[in-house]
Amino acid sequence: MRVFSASSRQFPDPVVMKADSIRFPFRTPVAVRVRGFAAAAQRLAALALPGQCALCGNLSQGLLCGGCDAQYWNEPRLRCATCALPLAASYLRRDRDDTRAHCAACLESPPAFNDTLALADYRAPLDALAVELKFRARLAAGETFARHLHALFEDSDLPAPDVIVPVPLSRPRLVARGYNQAWAIARPLARLMGVRSDASIVSRVRHTSAQSRLDQEARRRNVASAFAVSGDVRGRHIGVVDDVMTSGATLDALARTLKLAGARRVTNFVALRTPKD
Ligand SMILES: [Zn+2]
Ligand SMILES: [Zn+2]
């Protein structure tokens, strides 16, 4: 089995990825640990055939048909500027110059990262794309996420990061899956933004147990010392990419590690955000 991790030069082309996914298909033990993935996978079993839209099953040349592409990406949703949690519209305080809204948790105890951009809530039907990417090595889903994250970034007032990194997988998990799904988003996103991407700056030094089974505090403890920085990040603005953001504990731990190593600013780019912690 080939393992793909470090630099962009080692990243396989889609044909190789596809071949690997055929030899090492859907890994049930991982799937059942991730809440919601099993249900989305069932929907996919009926839909995700070549030449069909990954969401509705209509004939389509691309990953999504024109109808789904137009329908599901433009969700008007007020989100916390820091953690991308969906907020009620009343959160926006119009009497202030700063129109960015923040959730109560981020105001009370700000996480280590500065900002988060998220495309949509983690729920049907878009969760199916995360499954496609994470368990079926369908790289087109990563590229679709990247394209929309780039558009979201262009619409924001956020400064561009100096370098973009994926949330790393632990070595055992990388070996089991054969690729890092966050890197499949990070690399095309960096290309679109004209920013360097580097999967070797941060690594996961501890194999943490599956986050979905833990409560918020346990999640924090679980990932507290999970990451290590090996590149020079001093004074730099780091863009961190992940496919799904749940509690934010993983991204908080990674940002904390980056800042301890001297990073000036951390911006998260996540495809899908769970509506509640
Ligand atoms: Zn469709
Ligand atoms: Zn927040």
UniProtKB/TrEMBL annotation:
<dbReference type="InterPro" id="IPR000836">
    <property type="entry name" value="PRTase_dom"/>
</dbReference>
<feature type="domain" description="Phosphoribosyltransferase">
    <location>
        <begin position="185"/>
        <end position="271"/>
    </location>
</feature>
<dbReference type="Pfam" id="PF00156">
    <property type="entry name" value="Pribosyltran"/>
</dbReference>
<dbReference type="InterPro" id="IPR029057">
    <property type="entry name" value="PRTase-like"/>
</dbReference>
<protein>
    <submittedName>
        <fullName>ComF family protein</fullName>
    </submittedName>
</protein>
<dbReference type="InterPro" id="IPR051910">
    <property type="entry name" value="ComF/GntX_DNA_util-trans"/>
</dbReference>
<comment type="similarity">
    <text>Belongs to the ComF/GntX family.</text>
</comment>
